[in-house]
Amino acid sequence: MSAPKKLFIKTYGCQMNVYDSERMAEALEGYEQTQSPDDADMILLNTCHIREKAAEKVYSELGRYKVLKDAKPDLKIGVAGCVAQAEGQEIMRRQPLVDLVVGPQSYHRLPEMEARTHNGAKVVDTDFPEEDKFEHLKARPKAKRGPSAFLTVQEGCDKFCAFCVVPYTRGAEVSRPVDRILTEARDLVERGVREITLLGQNVNAYHGASSQGEQSLAQLIWALDKVDGLERIRFTTSHPNDMTDELIEAHGTCDKLMPYLHLPVQSGSDHILKRMNRSHTRDSYIRLIERIREARPDILLSGDFIVGFPEESDQDFADTMDLIREVNYGQAYSFKYSPRPGTPAAERGEVDAAVADARLQELQALIAHQQKTIQDSMVGREVDVLFEKPGRDAGQMMGKSGYLHAVHVADCTAQRGDIRKVLITESQRNSLAGRLV
Questions:
Q1: Domain ranges of the chain
Q2: Contact 163, 306 (CB under 8 A)
Q3: CA 337/CA 340 separation, integer angstroms
């Protein structure tokens, strides 16, 4: 038997890409993963189009692989994900060393594409196939897994926010059937997983088919609640317009659903929200937060903010800062607006770069202060921690609380996968320290 070939996957961006990279690696039989491109027989870049200048960063990364390709002509190089979908054949024109380009809806075809490259073919597949890619993927191997896992349940988006390429690169909203999700979840639990994060570009718009008819995300969560051995459930990313009453209620009544919610608002200005085509207002978002906190008072809220969106005035930015102060976030992701070709906002004039930079720094300082205050308030509390891996020091274990805080415990007797109660004794820069109770 010949030795397995080596596969190096570099994953950019979102958690959905982490899940997709796992499935691509599983689809490519005959390969085992390596942590270095230097000894790889195939390099696969799984790309994301959300970050600024995403395509240029991919081209730059590909340029660094030329020396590897020159030394090993049989090395196969592929580009997958949203940049692949958006750029298509242009990737091979600009970087002839690339052998295959595959969009996020077609990666179940990777084995066939990879086989064609051995005959010298250059392969591009950025179609939106009618068949369900999840149905055509092989069953997941039975190898042991870590305590936490991602599970994609929904893809695509129908919202068409003015700044976002997702509807163009991932397509329309599609939800996986309930029974297939439950089967995959049970399989993950059998392999050691205790916490599952449900993923989707717009996950709370989930509407999966089942024998009882179409099911919502809340109904899916309650179905997962019955899976023996699954102890924690999370979901991301959500849209405010799809936070239904039953989903809010689940946060207050489902013990396995963790007290953490990522709910992007993007701006606190009604003028900018309208120009973004967000379909919610500042007031509707704040009222929604009030209802969520009424159902689960201790919930930790996370958000997304875009600063310097076209036409954003000083007052628009001030409205965003006021919203942040009112909501009080435990975590947030914030970005300076950068245009994405093909989106409506890309045709509009941009805010002065220096002004946008200053606004972003001011916003991030406020978020950092709120995050630290909430983290400091955890000192003296007892929280359940799911331990995931050893820490830097001998005897130290790392894990995360239900609020998604990183927690480390010294001289820890807990094993990987244990959920143990921890008394928080110290708040550090981006983590908490504690001791087992």
A1: 5-125, 133-375, 382-436
A2: yes
A3: 9
Four-CA torsion 74, 121, 113, 82, nearest 10 degrees: 90
Arch. (CATH architecture) of 5-125: 3-Layer(aba) Sandwich (3.40)
Can you give the pLDDT of all 437 residues of the chain as single tens digits? 567 899 999 998 778 888 889 888 988 988 999 999 999 999 999 988 766 677 888 999 999 999 999 999 999 999 998 888 888 899 999 999 999 999 888 888 898 999 999 988 999 988 876 556 566 666 666 678 899 999 999 998 999 999 998 888 888 899 999 999 999 999 999 999 999 999 999 999 999 999 999 999 999 999 999 999 999 999 999 999 999 999 999 999 999 999 999 999 999 999 999 999 999 999 999 999 999 999 999 999 999 999 999 999 999 999 999 999 999 999 999 999 999 888 999 999 999 999 999 999 999 999 999 999 999 999 999 999 999 999 999 999 999 999 999 999 999 999 999 999 999 999 999 999 999 99
Domain 133-375 listed as CATH 3.80.30.20: yes
Whether residue 34 is preceded by a cis peptide bond, meaning omega within 30 degrees of 0, is no
| 277-310 core/surface letters (b: 16 or more CB in 10 A; e: else) | ebebebeebeebbeebbeebeebbbbbebbbbbb
**Structure-token pair, residue 244:** 């239904």
Report which secondary-structure segment, H or E, holds 331: strand 331-336
What homologous superfamily is domain 382-436 in, according to CATH? Nucleic acid-binding proteins (2.40.50.140)
> DSSP of 335-399, one letter per residue?
EE----TTSGGGGSPPPPHHHHHHHHHHHHHHHHHHHHHHHHTTTT-EEEEEEEEE-SSTT-EEE
Q: What 3-state class would DSSP assign to 249?
A: helix
β-bridge mates for residue 11, sequence order: 46
